[in-house]
Specification:
By secondary structure, the chain is an alpha+beta fold. Helix content is 31%, strand content 25%. Strands 7-11-12-17-16-15-14-13 form an eight-stranded mixed sheet. Strands 2-3-4-6-5 form a five-stranded mixed beta barrel. A three-stranded antiparallel sheet has the order 8-10-9, with no helix packed on it. The chain binds aspartyl-adenosine-5'-monophosphate. The site of aspartyl-adenosine-5'-monophosphate (AMO) has 22 residues, from strand 12, strand 16, strand 17 and helix 12. This is Aspartate--tRNA(Asp/Asn) ligase.
Length: 432
């Protein structure tokens, strides 16, 4: 019976069979050591038989093999166990040599080489690890939201109108009609609050971002949630907190090897994440830095970084909510702050210097939507399907979206979110 490399130690003295990739072959005078890699890790195989030694000398690394032999304890072997007296079967053709040495612990290749050859280079344990953290994060997000009574939904990625303000939308031909790639599930998740009260979605979104930065992709994975019967944006922030805490806990639980390998420092998620109002953040920046951002409608990336450092110093938290962004910079569905209508009941969550989440309370009255669109000089016509939900009774609600690649990049210390994206799509990259 085939077992995983990590299970060999449990079968010392028995015949075992392991399948994987020939990770490394090292010939000594009398024996040859081969290391086989499978999804669970590595196991050493010791060949003494002259014919097998010769064959191992010829077989290129990355060839897919099956090895049957005796599980033998050896304190000197990695993991304290190895497979001796092996019989080796090739399960595929001899492999081509990878574009760079994927067997050395340190990654020496530059990002473009890694991305151009992702199907092979991501086999490097250090390059694969962020995706194990990514999978654990999504699992944690799902678990946290399901625990809070949210229903998972799947909404169309080809849509008939833009959802997020701005021109960064991909247009395509849909049987002769104009269509767009969804920038977010915003409209659909709000609409589904009218059906399920609480919904979430994990899916791809598309942004025709013309800028070439280490934190923007043209396609990324958005973790979205939306819930009804909120008092204001603070109820949404409490859900963000629980979702992020669930994600961090799931990384520790489900991806301990990746955490260890990448030396990930998992952050504490405070029971209540500190928050600062946008206007107060600007005052603080004006008072304590050389810059005076007051009057600007948004925070610059450098301001976000400074505020994150401030949150660590002041509150001992690596997470910081900035609330109350000016209405002028937020999409038309945003709910204003009833006390100060030039500001919104919205927020961003900053983490280790970067915006990770955007969210807020939404308008929920049909008449408010008509007024908001009119104020922006927009016709309600393209939004008819969306607006219908509000005409049929919609509770006060709000929600948020978290960018998965950014989350994993910040978690693993990657300097570019392309290290945490399997096949990045951006200004330049459409293949592989
Ligand atoms: P927003 O446009 O701010 O909000 O996006 C939410 C989060 O998604 C991530 N993100 C990106 N990640 C990679 N590449 C990009 N080009 C990119 N753009 C955004 C960020 C960001 O915080 N509908 C609203 C959310 C809501 O209010 O529910 C929205 O999409 O982490």
């Amino acid at each position: 019976m085939r077992i995983l490399s990590s299970q060999v130690a449990e079968h010392v003295g028995e015949t075992v069979c392991v399948a994987g990739w020939l990770h490394r072959v090292r010939a000594l005078k009398s024996v040859t050591f081969a290391v086989v890699r499978d999804r669970a890790g590595l196991v050493q195989v010791v060949a003494a038989d002259a014919e097998l030694v010769k064959r191992l000398g010829e077989l290129p690394e990355e060839t897919v093999v099956e090895v049957e032999g005796t599980a033998t304890a050896n304190p000197q072997a990695p993991g304290g166990v190895e497979i001796t007296s092996p019989v080796l079967r090739e399960l595929s053709d001899p492999a081509l040599t990878p574009p760079f040495d994927i067997y050395r612990p340190v990654v020496t290749a530059a990002l473009p080489t890694v991305l151009d050859n992702a199907a092979v280079t991501l086999r490097h344990p250090r390059l694969r690890a962020p995706f194990e953290i990514s999978a654990a994060s999504v699992s944690g997000f799902r678990g946290a939201l399901e625990g809070l009574g949210f229903t998972e939904i799947h909404t169309p990625k080809v849509v008939s109108s833009a959802t997020e303000s701005g021109a960064n939308v991909f247009k395509l031909d849909w049987f002769g009609r104009n269509a767009y790639l969804a920038q977010s599930p915003q409209f659909y998740k709000q609409t589904m609050v009218g059906v399920f009260e609480r919904v979430f979605e994990v899916g791809p979104v598309f942004r025709a971002e013309p800028h070439d930065t280490a934190r923007h992709l043209a396609q990324y994975t958005s973790l979205d949630a939306e819930l009804g019967f909120v008092t204001d944006h603070r109820d949404v922030m409490a859900v963000v907190r629980d979702a992020v805490a669930g994600m961090v806990a799931a990384i520790a639980e489900r991806a301990p090897a990746a955490v260890e390998l990448l030396k990930v420092e998992l952050p504490e998620v405070p029971a209540e994440i500190p928050s600062i109002h946008f206007a107060d953040a600007q005052e603080l920046l004006a008072r304590e830095t050389d810059e005076d951002p007051r009057g600007e409608p948004d925070l610059a990336p450098a301001h976000e970084r400074w505020l994150c450092d401030w949150a660590v110093r002041e509150h001992g938290s690596q997470f910081l909510f900035v609330t109350g962004y000016p209405m002028a910079k937020r999409p038309f569905y945003t709910h204003p702050d009833p006390e100060r209508p030039e500001f919104s009941n919205s927020f961003d969550l900053l983490f280790r210097g970067l915006e990770l989440v955007t969210g807020g309370q939404r308008l929920h009255r049909h008449s408010d939507y008509l007024a908001a669109l009119a104020a922006r000089g927009e016709s309600p016509e393209p939004y008819a399907g969306y607006l219908a939900a509000f005409a049929h009774g919609m509770p006060p609600h709000g929600g948020f979206a978290l960018g998965l690649e950014r989350f994993v990049a910040r978690m693993t210390g990657a300097d570019n979110i392309r290290w945490t994206t399997l096949f990045p799509r951006d200004l330049h990259r459409l293949t592989p």
